[in-house]
Specification:
Layout lengths: L30 E12 L8 H12 L4 H4 L3 H11 L6 E19 L2 E18 L8 E2 L4 E5 L2 E18 L1 H4 L6 E29 L6 E10 L1 H13 L2 H8 L9 H4 L3 E15 L17 E17 L4 E10 L17 H7 L6 H8 L9 E4 L3 E10 L2 E10 L10 E12 L2 E10 L4 E10 L3 E11 L7 E13 L1
Antiparallel strand pairs: 1-2, 1-19, 2-3, 3-6, 4-5, 5-7, 6-7, 7-8, 7-9, 8-11, 9-10, 10-12, 10-13, 13-14, 14-15, 15-16, 16-17, 17-18, 18-19
Length: 486
C-alpha cells in the first residue's frame, strides 16, 4: 500500500504506526495472534535490472566490506553521476532497511483494545557528496564554486517491546454523529539498542573568482557502539582498514547476525495517535457500542507521532569530534569505490584519500577529551497523517510522513504514500502502492494475500524506478507471517 498505514493498518503492528487503529473494529473477531512478519528494502547507489545481481549487491552490503565488491569502472561512475546527481544536486541519499516483527497479540473489549508486540529493525542511511565521484567544481552562485566531498552515514539496530492501548474518545465521540467515532491510542515501548553509528563528515573544496587555489572546509562528528567502535579503535591504532573490518565485522551477515544485535544501550519510546472513522451510506457498524460487525464503508482520517524517546548507549561507546576549520589541503582524486555503507566501508573509503581522512586529522585535532564517554541518541521521531476511503472491497489510502530529525530510519524531507487495495475475489486482495519523496526515486509496490475469517497471510514486493531509466528494479520484499483471529 505504498508504505503508509496511518489510517489503514489495524492489526497489532498498528502499535508502531498509529495505536489508535488498534480499537477500530475492522474484523468480527476479538483476539489475534501472529508471528514472523518481515520486510526489507534496499536502494543501492547503482541499481541494476537483474534480480540476481540486485540480490548479490544486497548481500555485499550486509556482509563485511570487501573493496572489490564496490569497485567501479569509469562508465559505472558516470552512470552513478547521471542517476544520482542531476544538475544542481551536490549530494545523493540512499537507505537500506529491514523490519522484523517477531510476534504480536491484539485483543478487543468493547470500544477498547490492547496489544503486545516485539519488533527488531535496523537501517542504514547514507548521504554522499558528488565530489567523491567527480573532480570538477559546481557553481554555488555567480562567484563561488564548490566540490562537495561530504559523507554521512547513520546505522542503527533497535529491539522494541511495545504495549499498545486504544479506545474511543467518548468526550468527542458524543459530540459528533453516531455514525462517526474518534479513537485515541498510545503505545509505550522498552528499547534495547544494538550496534550504532552516526558519522557526519561535512566537507568541501571551494574557491571564488579572487582566489588562486581552492580552500578546504571541514567538520567531523562521530558516535558509535558495538562493532563500529571496535573497528574504528583498531583502525586509528594500526592504520589498516582491512584488518579492522575483518576482525570486528562478521564476514557473513547471515551467520553472525547476533554480532550486530547484541545490546549496547537501552531506552524508551512512545507512539501516539488519533483516528476519526466516519461510516458511509448504510454502514451502521459504529452505531452501537460493542458491536462486532466489521466496518465495510468508511472514511478514516488518522494522525500519529511515532518514536518519541531516546536510547542511552553505554557499552563500548566511541565519540570523536573535530570543529569546523578551513585549510589549504592537497586536491584529492575521485574515489574508485561506490559508497553503499556496508559494514566498515567508511574506514576503507577514507583510507584511500589520506588528505581527507577525518580519522587521521582527528588524532591531533580532536576537540573532545573523553572518546569513551556514553551518549544518548534520540529515536527517529516523525509526524504522520493519512486517510483511507473504504467501500466494501475497495480501499484507497494516502499518507504524508515528515521526520523531525535525520537518522538511520528517516530524514526531514516530506514523503508521500499512495495505495489501493481491491479484492476481485473476496479472500484474495490485490494491493498497489507508490512512494514519492524529494530527490529520491519513485518506489512502486505490489502485494497480495489470503484473508480468511480466522487467519490471514500476505506478501509483497517493492520496485525502484531509477532516474533516466524506464526499468523497474526489485528493491524490497515483505512477508506477513501467519496471523490467526479468534
Amino acid at each position: 500500500m505504498g508504505g503508509g498505514g496511518t489510517a489503514y493498518l489495524t492489526g497489532y503492528e498498528a502499535a508502531f504506526i498509529n495505536p489508535a487503529n488498534l480499537a477500530v473494529p475492522d474484523k468480527s473477531t476479538r483476539f489475534s495472534i501472529g508471528i514472523g512478519t518481515a520486510a526489507g528494502f534496499f536502494a543501492p547507489v547503482m541499481s541494476v535490472g537483474s534480480t540476481s545481481r540486485q540480490f548479490q549487491a544486497y548481500k555485499n552490503y550486509l556482509d563485511a566490506h570487501q573493496p572489490e565488491a564496490t569497485a567501479i569502472t569509469a562508465s559505472e561512475k558516470q552512470l552513478i553521476l547521471d542517476r544520482n546527481y542531476p544538475k544542481g544536486r551536490s549530494r545523493s541519499e540512499h537507505q537500506h532497511r529491514m523490519d522484523l516483527i517477531l510476534g504480536g497479540v491484539q485483543w478487543r473489549q468493547g470500544d477498547r483494545a490492547f496489544s503486545l508486540t516485539a519488533r527488531t529493525r535496523f537501517s542504514t542511511r547514507t548521504e554522499v557528496g558528488r565530489g567523491w565521484y567527480d573532480e570538477t567544481f559546481e557553481d554555488l552562485d555567480s562567484s563561488t564554486s564548490v566540490r562537495d566531498v561530504s559523507l554521512f552515514q547513520q546505522s542503527q539496530f533497535l529491539h522494541e517491546f511495545s504495549f499498545g492501548y486504544g479506545q474511543t474518545f467518548d468526550f468527542v465521540s458524543g459530540l459528533i454523529p453516531r455514525v462517526g467515532k474518534l479513537y485515541i491510542g498510545i503505545a509505550p515501548k522498552f528499547i534495547l539498542g544494538g550496534s550504532y553509528l552516526d558519522l557526519q563528515y561535512d566537507s568541501r573544496y571551494w574557491f571564488t573568482d579572487e582566489m588562486d587555489q581552492p580552500l578546504f572546509t571541514r567538520s567531523f562528528s562521530y558516535r558509535s557502539t558495538g562493532n563500529f567502535s571496535g573497528a574504528t579503535r583498531h583502525y586509528t591504532a594500526n592504520g589498516d582498514p582491512s584488518a579492522a573490518v575483518q576482525r570486528h565485522f562478521p564476514s557473513s551477515f547471515q551467520q553472525d547476525f547476533s554480532d550486530y544485535t547484541t545490546p549496547t544501550g537501552m531506552g524508551g519510546g512512545l507512539d501516539f495517535g488519533l483516528v476519526y472513522v466516519l461510516t458511509l451510506g448504510d454502514d451502521l457498524s459504529l452505531a452501537h457500542s460493542g458491536n462486532t460487525q466489521p466496518i465495510e464503508k468508511s472514511l478514516r482520517l488518522g494522525f500519529s507521532v511515532t518514536d518519541l524517546g531516546f536510547v542511552s548507549y553505554n557499552e563500548n561507546p566511541r565519540s570523536l569530534d573535530h570543529a569546523r576549520d578551513t585549510t589549504l589541503t592537497p586536491f584529492a582524486a575521485a574515489s574508485g569505490q561506490k559508497y553503499e555503507g556496508s559494514p566498515g566501508q567508511y574506514l576503507s573509503f577514507f583510507d584511500e584519500v589520506p588528505d581527507l581522512n577525518p580519522f587521521q586529522f582527528n588524532q591531533v585535532g580532536r576537540s573532545d577529551d573523553s572518546p569513551e564517554r556514553p551518549f544518548k541518541a534520540v529515536l527517529p521521531t516523525s509526524f504522520n497523517a493519512g486517510m483511507l476511503l473504504q467501500v466494501n472491497r475497495l480501499k484507497l489510502a494516502a499518507d504524508l510522513t515528515l521526520g523531525l530529525n535525520d537518522s538511520a530510519f528517516n530524514n526531514t524531507k516530506l514523503i508521500a504514500h499512495f495505495g489501493m487495495e481491491f479484492a476481485p475475489v473476496k479472500p484474495v486482495p490485490i494491493r498497489l502502492g507508490a512512494q514519492v519523496a524529494t530527490d529520491s526515486p519513485t518506489l512502486w509496490s505490489l502485494g497480495t494475500g489470503i484473508v480468511m475469517k480466522h487467519w490471514e497471510l500476505s506478501a509483497g514486493a517493492q520496485f525502484l524506478s531509477p532516474r533516466g531509466s524506464p526499468a523497474l528494479n526489485l528493491s524490497g520484499a515483505a512477508v506477513g507471517g501467519l496471523t490467526f483471529h479468534f
